[in-house]
Amino acid sequence: MPSALADVEWDACVLEPRRDRELEAYVRRGLGVVPSSVAYFTPVPWVVHAMTAMSSAGSPMLHVDSVLADLVGLVVSQDNSCRYCFGVQRLMLRVHGVADARIAQLEQGFLDAEIDPHAKSALDFARRLSRAAPLVSASDTEALRASGWNAPAIRELAFHSVFNVFMNRLMTIAAIPFAPVESLADFWPIRIVAPVMRIAMRRRERRALARASQLPQERARGPWAYLVGALDGLSAARALRETLDAALASQALPKRAKALIFAVVARGLDEPLAVREAGELLAECGLTPDRADSILTHLGSRDLDPIENALVPFARGTIRGRPLQLQQRTRALLELLSPEQLIEAVAVSALANAVTRLGVVTQV
Amino acid sequence: MALAWGIALGVAGAGAVFAGLWLRARRSNALARTRLAAASAELERLEHAFARFAPMELVERVIASGVPTGGERKEVTVLFADLVGFTPLAESVDPSTLVRILNGYFERMSRAITAHQGHISTLIGDGILALFGAIETNPWQTDDAVRAALAMRAELAAYNAELASEGLPKLALGVGVHRGTGIAGLVGSPELMQFTIVGTVVTVAARVQTLTREHGVDILVTADVQRALDPRFALRALPPNMLKGISEPVSTFALLPD
Asked: Which residues of B touch A297 (CB under 8 A)?
């Protein structure tokens, strides 16, 4: 059955895969398998850690069941035209035993597919959160409450949705090859081994839930504390804190360049909390509010170095757009950035798009 | 005995009729499901396609509950482009060549505009009305519009080289860019409706475009654009002009080469 995204244009990948046994072992412990995409990000380990830690396997969910989580992944990936992630979600739904006809129905007509109101409200919310046109607001969370979602469940759903935004951006901006995943999703023996895979997944989920621990109060502090704090009680809080800290501590790109990426995305989406947070980060990096504002107003400045001057408009391009456009902009950075810098630029842009859209958790 | 056979045959006949009806209903249900799936898929594709011409939220609203009649006040940047000397050109080449030249022109201009986050609202003859910041909130709308104008200039230069190689006349462009508040909404008749901006902001952009001939330049921006624009763009101030339908004189700036 051809993928619903079969017509989406996709450029050749700009990154070279590089295997790293230690990181692969980490991913296998978390996810049970090592996705083909991992090898493209190993030069910057925090990216691989984030892919695993923020996933539903790394941050086990208490309120959103695994089939619904994969449905969220399916509709968000479809909306973002991410062929890689869409293939993964189709594969996961088959592993969960969802019939091909049902998957086709969901792919082809989410608007009219027969979905129970509880799940449909979640899928609607996830899609609106991902689109951010406009940003989701309290009225969207009210609609969820009316369908029976409570506050912690909404926060978990929001986190899972933006995790998909993160993965979609990561795979799309870097043009990670989707063929291995797409062909696996359509490989018929998957249906035969699916029951065994389900048992293994359930076991892993139970172990992950047993291992999951609350983030100590003092660790909630730091950049984006308002988001980490709002996720209190969910394993997502720890995953987000660790990912943000690791992203900012990484040395591939200077901290100021990364802060600029966060600030551009926050301004582009007009999310006041993220704008304030990124502004504080820029101030820590020595940019006064006036200078920062001048850079962000015109997406560049003579004061910035060539890498920053390239990354600022690049970050803006990641907010919306079709895959091929995004991928061509990434290719244009190849002359200026090392592979490690390019991976970090892609991953920080993906993370900025995720955390900026996550602001709604403070309104639940 | 005969009665038993009769009953058996009757039951078998009724069973066959029932089975036939059931199979027919099943086939008809399957067909209906296939059609529904195809229609849903088409709807999904249309929703995505239309999101390039109108805000996604508006598209969703149209699908869910029909065409909304209200408008919304929005800060936008309007770019109005027109071919200079189009009428003599139209009279000097045959109709099929003219259409080919025009289509090539629109294709290149459209590429320049969409590459800079703009969208073409209307084509009026050889004129183009493009909007920036109308579909999605865009804090960089003015820089985008001016970058689009520069890209249009570059695209036209490349296109003119192609036309010259075929012995065809060159095209010349006039562009006016203005920023202001307009009313965004679905405008038109039930037969033809489009998402656009209406208001003085569009009128000023169109009138400023006509000033390009008077000042002998190809791209003019208003003072409202100049104030919002990245200072790295090179501009040359021109004397203010009175524009038809506008009470105050309008200051304009010529956009110099990149």
From this structure: 139-140, 230
